[in-house]
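thought: fold this chain, then report.
action: predict
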Amino acid sequence: VPAEQQALLRELTQKRLMHYPLQYLLGEWSFMGFPLSVGEGVLIPRDDTEVCTGLCLDYLKGKPNAAAIDLCSGSGAIAIALEKLGHAAVTAVELSEQAFSFLTKNIHTNNCRVKAVRGDVFSCHTQFPDNHFDLIVSNPPYRPAVRWSLNWERDRRRRWVRSCANRALQTSAPNRIWAAVNARSSAYGRALSDKRDNAHKIENLFE
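observation:
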């Protein structure tokens, strides 16, 4: 084995012993059969992400020409799966410059027609007409609980979810709002909503 490869193996082994994510070391991870480039600056798709995506795919069945938007898209895992498996017209919104580079790369790698938008979920709704989306989904990033008090983190999640849910009521097609939210701090929440409900139904999942 060449000395350069031995040195690389030692470096990778040392990183792994320090609990550096295997997915980051490999630089790629599969999600629902699709290869995704991953690294620092983007979250690694997990099993609960597949659960969330599966619920969205179930909802999209029998809905031709459906439009979906993935907020805080990150690597684009959910957006790509919805476009490839759900045959939906998907928009992926991501604010982070690092994550957005992974998003666009993964869209290209998987030969997707997902529309990547670099923007803030609190203001990106102004870019889309009302009643445009059949499905709004988000698997947002989270912060370690040790960094903030539980009450502050809960209030932060509540404000974010309320904002997204209220925008869903404005930008989704009538009677076809579906919101799936994964708050990976202390709870995993999912909600199915229509025009008869309101943002608080989703918000209450995080109490």
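thought: worth noting. Residues 145-153, 171-179, 181-207 have pLDDT under 50 and may be disordered.
final: tokens above.
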